[in-house]
Design a protein that fits this description.
alpha+beta, 6 helices, flat, two-stranded antiparallel ribbon, 25% strand
Length: 105
């Protein structure tokens, strides 16, 4: 879920993370994929004190998680730690084994 990934990436406010999601969805479409397959819009109910309220969330594919990290704030330590400088001509690359660990897969 996107809200869980937001916490893992040290985003404290959903509205800030939504901007990252929007950029990642644009990157998804620009790569020739249908963003609704990788970013599935869902609503869930959360406790809000004495009542419950619906909140927006997304079920993310592995590719969507990758795009979110690529479009996240590189000043955040959690995101910076996911990247390593590669000696390959590609430049920056995500350490491939870390995302499943972060997502509990």
């Amino acid at each position: 879920m996107a809200r869980e990934l937001a916490r893992a990436l040290d985003y404290t406010e959903w509205r800030n993370f939504e901007r990252v999601l929007d950029k990642a969805m644009i990157a998804c479409v620009n790569s020739g994929r249908e963003s609704t397959h990788d970013f599935v819009d869902i609503n869930k109910i959360v406790d809000a004190g004495t009542a419950s309220k619906p909140v927006n969330d997304y079920e993310l594919s592995r590719y969507a998680c990758y795009l979110v990290v690529q479009n996240g704030d590189p000043r955040k330590e959690a995101i910076a730690n996911l990247f390593r400088i590669s000696k390959q001509p590609k430049g920056l690359s995500v350490t491939p084994w870390i995302l499943p660990l972060m997502l509990g897969e």
